[in-house]
Amino acid sequence: MGAITRALFLSCFHGGGGGSFEVSHRLALRPRYPSMPRRPKGAAAAGGDGGGRGGGDLEAAAVAGNEEEEKVAVFSVSGMTCAACAGSVEKAVKRLPGIHDAAVDVLGGRAQVVFYPAFVSENRITEAIEDVGFEAKLIDEEVMEKNILLCRLHIKGMACKYCTSTVEFVLQTSPGVQRASVALATEEAEIRYDRRIVSATQLIQAVEETGFEAILVTTGEDRSRIDLKMDGVLDKRSLMMLESSVQALPGVENVKFDTELNKVTILYKPDQTGPRDLIEVIKSATSGLVNASIYLEADGRDQHRYREIKRYRQSFLWSLIFTIPIFLTSMVFMYIPWLKAGLEKKVFNMMSTGELLRWILSTPVQFVIGRKFYAGAYKAMCRGSPNMDVLIALGTNTAYFYSVYSVLRAATSDNYMSTDFFETSSMLISFILLGKYLEILAKGKTSEAIAKLMDLAPETATLLMYDHEGNVVGENEIDSRLIQKNDVIKVVPGGKVASDGFVIWGQSHVNESMITGESRPVAKRKGDTVIGGTVNENGVLHVRATFVGSESALAQIVRLVESAQMAKAPVQKFADQISRVFVPLVILFSLLTWLAWFAAGRLHSYPNSWIPPSMDSFQLALQFGISVMVIACPCALGLATPTAVMVATGVGASRGVLIKGGHALESAQKVDCIVFDKTGTLTIGKPVVVDTRLLKNMVLREFYDYAAAAEINSEHPLAKAIVEHAKKLHLEENHIWPEARDFISVTGHGVMAEVSDKSVIVGNKSFMLSSYIDIPLEASEILIEEEEKARTGVIVAMDREVVGIISVSDPIKPNAHEVISYLKSMNVESIMVTGDNWGTANAIGKEVGIEKIIAEAKPEQKAEMVKELQLSGRTVAMVGDGINDSPALVSADVGLAIGAGTDVAIEAADIVLMKSNLEDVITAIDLSRKTFFRIRMNYVWALGYNVIGIPIAAGVLFPSTGFRLPPWVAGAAMAASSVSVVCWSLLLRYYKSPKIVGS
User: What is its EC number (predicted)?
Assistant: First the structure.
């Protein structure tokens, strides 16, 4: 399970495995336009006969001897931002002569083209893409995969959806960037980029040019990166000496010093060196004057959040020191006679003591404590995308500067009675700071699942020291982050395994539930793999580290969850479209509100008795305009989707359901039909041979030798069962099977090979018939009998004659029937598609409660079945575990891979069920439905708040009731809306999976 888990997460984060599946995965891209003809009309192949057949067909051109076979080329396409862009590129390419097919991946920034080189070249395809306005470059697929990295940046200063859209656009249009995603909830950007074209430093510069501060979280090269803190006196000479000493170590690729933070960042090859070696070299090179240790802020995410929380808390507390006296002097003390007399005492002409005091107290709140809003508003206006900071700055400045004007006019007049709004601007800033403080606290809790996962790793590890003869000579307790590849770690009973590796001594039981979800402890002995973060229960183990740091399974899980939290759900486009025009419209509406009320006051269209004694119509209109600007900030709208997705993916991960982003979540909640594979999905997936029926006279062991020799190269579970059974017929532990030549495997049907002096075919009935092998009546009767018992009959033929039938049974998973029944109650239809025979399939289907069954299906037929269901209007999920399931997993709206399945299936899936339990299919769908209920309610609250709040702030109730919403109350309501949206999403943390009867 350790190897499987590791492979799972390596495949998840490297964006694709190797080998044949990579090709099939790329070709699975669905084109948006019909393919053009295979051969262009009226064009002759280069060097063709040029005769009267014009374009001819490919065969004719090939006969001429000058036609080349079709070729596949992959192009990097920069500048695509949406499906329309991808469609334009695809259409432009397909219009060229000699194009067989083309598919464009807008997220990956790639175009794959299948073409005939005799009619069109790579350069011509590149030109066609550039003609429609995009940059294109032919890429070497293998080289590209090595140079494509995933970078993460922490971006400071983003206030609302406008900010994220601006940053995302700038990054997406940068050369070399294939995909960029910016999340307001985490204040992070995830960028998939080509390091040959652009560097992480250039990406940071691109962000900072938009007016935001960017801090590098990871360059995507973390497999070989470490940040070390240096304690000691460092001058220019010692830095040069340190750099040369570290650079001289084998495997060190790059060394970068940050003298301000006393930090050194080192890129290295973990196979050749490690953190302990690096620390020792630094210490030795300086004769012990400089010590190095793990830099605690190497990740930096939590530290940035804590600093931001601290900054907002301090700003809010300082604002209270000034705002409370302002509030008291304007709202409370005016009702206490002796205090009122003191506050109304004239200082200069008509300027009173209270007005002067409020002016003095509000100034630091406006310009010192509130400078963040000025800076944010200035940067937003410079880039032409007004945001929340612009609305706040406009509202508070309008209130403050009008108050200054009013007070100065009173100071220069003998009869002008001033009315100030100093309490409006200062209280507004205070409430917004409080709201941001609470919002950041709440947002921090959305990623608690990641923190809990990271806490699984132990802080220390016991390193064993060996002499030259391989004997243990000592132990040393070290920081677990200093473990290097091939280190041997001692794990005591009750202790945590410090890194992924394999047991070289000892035996014990290890509780892997925190990683795999499997509650039963797993027995471990020499040669078995272990996973970092799991708990050793009873014996002592010596473990050789194989995957350390960011290569470990735990780190891969964390990275998968982080990437999923960055991925946007399609429903978020709704919020993005609204946010693009929201702030400008609000500013315009605020201005119109002020003009309308000011004009109404001038025309006396409302009774003067409604106007407060200290106000005129201009001042009243001003308050309405400020209230509209403040209450309409679209923060809640921007947080509605990402916060819910973050919490849901974290909750899913903690329950062993790894959801690869918002798109998978959104699709899962719409599922109304699930297609199940049988073997390894509805069944345990570990078939065992339960009976053997020989039809010819031969020794049973010899029969199995031939069958096992043919099946040894197959990955199918039935093949493995046959090989395992054959091993039991031999006394020696490592029996050598006869050599199999000319091996051919037909996925889901069987294998054939030349073994010794015989031609051996092992497979199902249809495979035998397609191989023109007659099946005797006796064999047919045995097959029917086995099918009725829900067993699979595997036919073995030698020299084109059936010689025996092997009966294999695969137990059904516990609660499979209950799961299917519960799905039915959720209005989700279940269908079983399997490559097994009809008799066994029907027996299994009847036992688990599935009525619709497709048997003897090849992998491509499974995918076709999924597509047919989609064409009928169904939203289809596919649950599978094998290589033969991967085409269907890709084709389905939602692919769910069983965690114990193959790496290819796991990579192709949208959701991974780590515990391999069928109950988690229900959990995945139910969690997605509850998540989107939260998202919809978030939108209802965010939009409803604006729909109701803006008219009230604009004074719609004022003519009939005299009620008005003071700006500082509007500010408090605006802050409360964002906090409430985040808290509503946080309630998902208490999600409980449905209780299935019988489980």
Answer: 7.2.2.8
Report pLDDT for 25: 31
Segment of 5-14, 644-653, 959-968 carrying the highest mean pLDDT: 644-653
List pLDDT tens digits, range 585-635. 777 777 777 777 777 665 555 555 555 555 566 777 777 777 777 777 666
694 three-class SS: strand
Q: Is 716 helix (H, G, I), strand (E, B) or coil?
A: coil
- The neighbour count for residue 699, using CB atoms within 10 Å, is 10
**Cβ atoms 387, 162 nearer than 8 A:** yes
Cβ pair 329, 342 in contact under 8 A: no
Q: 752 Cβ partners below 8 Å, 6+ apart?
A: 710, 742, 743, 744, 759, 760, 761, 762, 763, 771
pTM of the model: 0.58
Tokens for 612?
């407060």
Query: Given strand 488-491, what is the order of strands in its sheet?
Result: 472-479, 460-466, 488-491, 541-547, 500-505, 529-530
How far is the C-alpha of 291 from the C-alpha of 293, rounded, in Å? 7
Contact 431, 968 (CB under 8 A): yes
Instruction: Determine phi and psi for 675, rounding to 5 degrees.
Output: -100, 120
For the chain, give the number of residues. 999
Q: What is the DSSP letter of 430?
A: H
CB proximity list for 929: less than 8 A, separation 6 or greater: 668, 669
- HEC assignment per residue over 567-600: CCCCCHHHHHHHHHHHHHHHHHHHHHHHHHHHHH
**Residue 965, token pair as written in the block:** 């919403």
Q: How far is CA 480 from the centre of its chain?
A: 27
Residue type, 17: G
Give the 3-state DSSP-derived string for 376-388, with helices as H, strands as E and coil as C.
Answer: HHHHHHHCCCCCH
CA dihedral 903, 908, 913, 918 (to 10 degrees): -110
CB 483 within 8 A of CB 501: no
Distance from C-alpha of 817 to C-alpha of 919, rounded to nearest angstrom: 11
Q: Give the distance between the most distant pair of CA atoms in the chain.
A: 125
DSSP state of 370: T
pLDDT higher at 624 or 6: 624
**φ, ψ for residue 457 (rounded to 5)?**
-70, 135
User: Which residue matches tokens 């210490």?
Assistant: 283
| Rounded (5°) CA angle 911-914-916 | 100
> CB–CB of 198/252 below 8 Å?
no
The full DSSP string for 212-274 is -EEEEEE-S-GGGEEEEEEES---HHHHHHHHHHHHTSTTEEEEEEETTTTEEEEEE-TTT--
What is the distance between the alpha carbons of residues 259 and 275, in angstroms, rounded to a whole number? 20
Burial 727-743 (b: 16+ CB within 10 A, else e): eeeeeeeeeebbebeeb
What pLDDT, in 10s, does the model give residues 346-358? 888 888 898 899 8
- The three-class DSSP label of residue 318 is helix
Nearest to 665 by CA among 450, 923, 899, 932: 932
Cβ contact 834:766 at 8 Å: no
Whole-number Å distance between alpha carbons of 186 and 197: 27
Q: Report which of 989, 990, 13 is spatially closest to residue 450, judged by C-alpha positions.
A: 989
| Inter-CA distances, 867 with 425, 862, 877, Å | 59, 9, 11
d(CA 853, CA 839): 11
Whether the CB-CB separation of 658 and 665 falls below 8 Å is answered with no
Which are the contacts of 462, defined by CB distance < 8 A and separation ≥ 6?
Answer: 475, 476, 477, 489, 490, 491, 492
Residue type, 361: L
The alpha carbon of residue 549 and the mean position of all alpha carbons in its chain are separated, in whole angstroms, by: 20
| Residue 225 near residue 264, CB atoms below 8 Å | no
